[in-house]
Design goal:
InterPro entries: GlbO/GLB3-like, Globin-like_sf, Globin/Proto, Hemoglobin_trunc. The chain is mostly helical. The chain has one domain: Globins (Globin-like), CATH 1.10.490.10. It has 8 helices and no strands. The protein has helices at 9-13, 15-32, 37-40, 48-61, 67-72, 77-81, 88-102, 109-125. Helix 2 crosses helix 4 (48-61), helix 2 (15-32) packs across helix 7 (88-102) and helix 7 runs antiparallel to helix 8 (109-125). It starts with 8 loop residues before the first helix and ends in a 6-residue tail after the last helix.
Length: 131
C-alpha cells in the first residue's frame, strides 16, 4: 500500500530555515544595491516589519504554515500594495533582489526556475502604475 503524498514547494525549498534565509538575503540586497533604491525608498527605515510579513507570506504561499493568514487575514496582496506606486521598474528592482536571494539558497535548478517564474508573475500582478 502506497501513500499518495505530494511534496510542497515549502518542503522543496527547505522549509522555515530556507525561507528565513531567503527573506534575510532579499532585504540585504534591497538595502544595499543602488539599483534597488526605488523599492527601498517605499519601505520604512526599519525593515523588520516587512521582513516578518514577507517570511509569513512566503511560508503559506509555498505550502507551509499559513502564518500570514493566521495573523493578518487573507493576503489581498494587490490591495495591500495599492498605496505604493508600483511600476515595471519597481517590479524589476524587486525581482533583482529576489533573484539574487534565490541564487544563494541551495535548490534544484528546475524548481528555482519555476519558483522564479511564479514570483515574477506575482510581482507583475502588483503593478498599479504606468511607466
Amino acid at each position: 500500500m502506497t501513500e499518495n503524498t505530494q511534496i510542497t514547494p515549502y518542503e522543496l525549498i527547505g522549509k522555515e530555515t530556507a525561507i528565513r534565509s531567503l527573506v534575510e538575503r532579499f532585504y540585504f540586497f534591497m538595502d544595499t544595491l543602488p539599483e534597488a533604491s526605488g523599492i527601498r525608498a517605499m519601505h520604512a527605515a526599519d525593515l523588520s516589519d516587512a521582513h516578518d510579513k514577507l517570511f509569513k507570506f512566503l511560508s503559506g504561499w509555498l505550502g507551509g504554515p499559513n502564518l500570514f493568514i493566521q495573523e493578518y487575514g487573507h493576503p489581498r496582496l494587490r490591495q495591500r500594495h495599492f498605496p505604493f506606486a508600483i511600476d515595471a521598474s519597481a517590479r524589476d528592482q524587486w525581482m533583482l533582489c529576489m533573484n539574487k536571494a534565490l541564487n544563494e539558497i541551495p535548490m534544484n535548478a528546475s524548481f528555482r526556475e519555476n519558483l522564479t517564474q511564479a514570483l515574477q508573475q506575482l510581482a507583475t500582478h502588483m503593478i498599479n502604475q504606468d511607466e
